[in-house]
What we know:
By secondary structure, the chain is mainly β. The chain is about 10% helix and about 40% strand.
Amino acid sequence: LDNVCAVLGVRKVHDNGKINFVIPPRDGAFSVDRVLTHSDIVQDGDTSIRQMQSDPDSAIWKGALRFTDPDAGYIENTVTYSRPNSVFEVLASNRQEEFSTDLVMTVAQASRALERLVIESDVQSRQYEFAVTAQNYAINPTTIVQFGYGPNDDITVIAEVMQCDLNGQSFAQGLVALEYAQATESSWLGTG
Length: 192
C-alpha cells in the first residue's frame, strides 16, 4: 500500500482513528483552503515563520519507474525521466532514483507518475513551521495554505499542512507545512 501511495502521490492522513487517503490536485485548478495574512501568524520572539530545507540533496535529477504494462502483454516495463536542464536552472543534486510498483499502468500513466516524483522531490523538502491565531483553528492536516514569506512577505508560499498542534499557554495552533507543488506541467521526454 505504501508503494502505491508513493508512486501516485496519495497522502495517508490519520484522523480520529481512521486513515483517509487524499489525492492532492496538481493540475493548477486547485483552490487554496486558507489564505493567511501577516496578522494571522503568531510572532514567536523575533521569528514568525521558520523555513527549513530538510535535505539539500533531496532533489532527484533522474528517475526510473518499473511497472506492469498492459499494452505490452502485462509484462514489466520501465520508463525513465531526466529533469530538464535550462540556462537558469541549477540543481544542487545529481541523485538518481529507481522506483517500482505493482500497479498496472500504461506508459503514459507511468511517465506522468515518474515526472511528478522527480519534480516534487525537492519541492517537498522545504518545510515551514509557524503558529496561527485562535480564529484559524480550523486548519487541519492536508489543508492547503497560502502565506507571505520574506522580509516584506514578498514571496508567496503555497504549502500543505502536515501537522497541527494546539498550544494551551499561548492559545495558538502550531503548524508544520511542506511546500506544495501546484501543478506539474512539462512535456515528457523519457523513454518507455
